[in-house]
Amino acid sequence: MSAPGLRGGIERFGNTVGRVLNRGGSAAAPRLDLSHDIILYLEGITVSFDGFRALNNLSLYVEAGELRCIIGPNGAGKTTMMDVITGKTRPDLGSAWFGQTVDLLTLTEPEIAEVGIGRKFQKPTVFSEHSVFENLELAMAGNKSVWRMLFAKMTPEQHLRIDEVLETIGLKDHRAARAGSLSHGQKQWLEIGMLLMQDPALLLVDEPVAGMTPQETERTAELLVSLAGKHSVVVVEHDMNFVRSIARTVTVLHQGSVLAEGSMEQVQNDPKVIEVYLGDGGH
Amino acid sequence: MENAMEAPRKLAKHAPPTPYQLLMRNDLPSGLFLTVLAIVTVLVPILHLVVPEGNVLHLSSYSVTLIGKYMCYALLAVAVDLIWGYCGILSLGHTAFFALGGYAMGMYLMRQIGTRGVYADPVLPDFMVFLNWKELPWFWQGMDQFWFAMIMVVFIPGLLAYVFGWLAFRSRVTGVYLSIITQALTYALLLAFFRNEMGFGGNNGLTDFKDLLGMDLKQPGVRIALFVATGVCLGFGYFACRYVVRSRFGRVVQAIRDAESRARFIGYRVENYKLWLFTFSAMLAGLAGALYVPQVGIINPGEFAPINSIEVVIWVAVGGRGTLYGAVVGAVLVNYAKTVLTDALPDVWLYALGALFVVVTLFLPKGIVGVLPDLKAKIDTLRLQRARRAR
Which member of A109, A155, A163 has the closest CB to residue B265? Predict the structure, then answer.
């Protein structure tokens, strides 16, 4: 009988200690301000690796609730751009703002995740030794401080939320399966599910349909389209049919800067784009 | 209407498990280990104290001390497994924390000697009188108080681990580089503690202990009390580690082991997780060292030797990395082998240890405790195939 009371006590103690020890945790993170309807500002971003300019004075704006596709030949700087936004790579020049108030260049990767930017990697990265369920549990939004996690208990509401996401990503029957044992496509889906659990304002999705069957690709397209509005979604993809099926606005990157931007039709008819990208076979 | 009815029922289905369920679910080996530990902790004192000498069942004081030592090693192995097996931090300097805990205990025991030393100085230990020191250095102050010394036993290793970890993890030092600097850490401490000017007895270390809490260390009752305390500490240490690895914190730590950058992008401050786990592990190692010293009766800088830390890693690898009970099994088995072999063929031991490590790495990647589950899986597949063929 006294055990739950004791646990509660330990938990309260842990939370108090946690507050003292983790000052500046989630509470200090600035809030996202979307008063100008723009969620992401990239201005004049330049990144060089050993003299090679991966990004060259790149400027890009993403509206709140938008679904944006980014295409471009290999080496155009798509992944580097994602690295800059998520804090993995620091640019030599330029500025990156999330809404009106958050300067992304001053934050670390976990802080950027905390203010509301989620990322799906090109190669599906899930926690292979954990079960599907645990992967989603770990990705769950909320305070991620050490002490909180030490005494964290799953609430029934959180459990339901995970069940919902399992349903959405079609892995309901695999909840107890080791994530490492899933097929490639299922891993991609699990990673998208983890993004959903994180519930970020901006989703960066790097090649979501690589290695998926046509049916899986179709379902991914539906999912991404349904996410836009509530979230802003930036998709980097090579599969032109896929881009055509979901894109409202397409940005074409070439040699580290924006070559063209507009609807799929406009972009496809742009002579510059035809020359550098669609012209040489269309990938 | 139906949905409104459905929600509470769904919620009820996900009622959180009771603490007991949380602790013991799906973990027969841990239950087995804790049971065996409890039996040993009760049985050894009886066999030593109650069963008369000369009876075949009588346990000699040598055996009691030996088993007590194995239990200290087991606690150290659990501490190493916690960071290596669960977080992928290969510390090759963990005996530094073990030795620091041991030194803290040794300092207390030295001050218990009092006037019974060779020079009969009421305050200064013999080696300080010998060095012509006139008063106790500041860091020896308070070590005559048992409670203070016991705090230092975990505080000093914890502090060193915290500072070291803060520097290393914040700079994102990982993998083999981290292993090398942990070796450097323990080697640096080895050299420092060898120096007489450090104030820890130089190469002789601290020894000639007389009393613990005013009771003679040579008395069987005290020996047994130490033994029981070791058993209890191992049990609680194991339990604490088990709680840690089974909490969500533990799942985050394992996630960091498997995909560090993914964990970062989800929003986990990876360096904080590593730092606290490393510090906790160092404190456990310090506790193990403190229990070890009064049982073996000496602590000297040799305990800092880099080879010792590597040996601990081998225990864990042999037993089964990533399972806490595996670490215990490895520590006990390898040390038992060491006791037998160094007695029978002293020159062979290091070669045997090296060979053991190679064999385990090549043929038993999950260690000894991984053999049974693997065998069972193989038998199951064979059975399945046979059943299919029969059909």
Answer: A109
SS3 A53: strand
A8 band by pLDDT with thresholds 50, 70 and 90: low
Query: The domain containing residue B371 runs over which residues?
Result: 28-390
Query: Are the C-beta atoms of B166 and B275 separated by less than 8 Å?
Result: yes
**Rounded mean pLDDT, A84-103:** 90
How many domains is chain A built from? 1
Task: Identify the pLDDT of residue B22.
Answer: 53
DSSP B124: S
* Interface list for A 147-206 with B (CB within 8 A): 149-157, 159-160, 163, 194, 198
A chain contacts of residue B252, beta-carbon cutoff 8 Å? 138, 144, 149
Q: In chain B, which residues have their Cβ closer than 8 Å to the Cβ of A4?
A: 19
Give Cβ neighbours of residue B277 (< 8 Å, ≥ 6 apart).
B82, B83, B86, B87, B89, B244, B253
> Å from B260 to nearest chain A CA?
9
Q: Which of B87, B241, B269 to mutate to test the interface with A (most CBs of A within 10 A)?
A: B269
Residues of A in contact with B268 (CB under 8 A): 110, 144
Asked whether residue B95 is domain-assigned, the answer is: yes
Determine, yes or no, domain membership for A127: yes
Q: Report which secondary-structure segment, H or E, holds B298.
A: strand B298-299
Q: Which range marks the domain in which residue A221 is found?
A: 65-89+108-278
Residue B187 pLDDT exceeds 70: yes
Please tell me the distance from the alpha carbon of residue B256 to that of residue B250, in angstroms, as a whole number. Answer: 10
pLDDT at B95: 96
Q: Which of A2, A127, A132 to mutate to test the interface with B (most CBs of B within 10 A)?
A: A127
In a domain, A267, yes or no: yes
For residue B270, list chain A residues with Cβ-Cβ distance below 8 A. 110
CA distance A181 to chain B (A): 14
In this structure, what are the phi and psi dihedrals at residue B287, rounded to the nearest 5 degrees? -60, -45
CATH of the domain at A161: 3.40.50.300
Q: Any chain A CB within 8 A of the CB of B268?
A: yes
Kindly give the pairing relationship between strand B215-216 and strand B211-212: antiparallel
**A202-241 residue pLDDT tens:** 999 988 888 788 888 888 888 888 888 888 999 988 778 8
E-only strand ranges, chain A: 38-49, 52-63, 67-71, 93-98, 102-103, 117-120, 202-206, 232-236, 249-254, 257-262
CB A211 within 8 A of CB A188: yes
What are residue A58's DSSP bridge partners? A45
- Summarize pLDDT for B291-312 with one digit per residue, the tens: 999 999 999 999 999 999 999 9
Residue B4 lies in a domain: no
Q: Quote the tokens at residue A30.
A: 């600035």
Inside any domain, residue B14: no
ipTM of predicted complex: 0.80
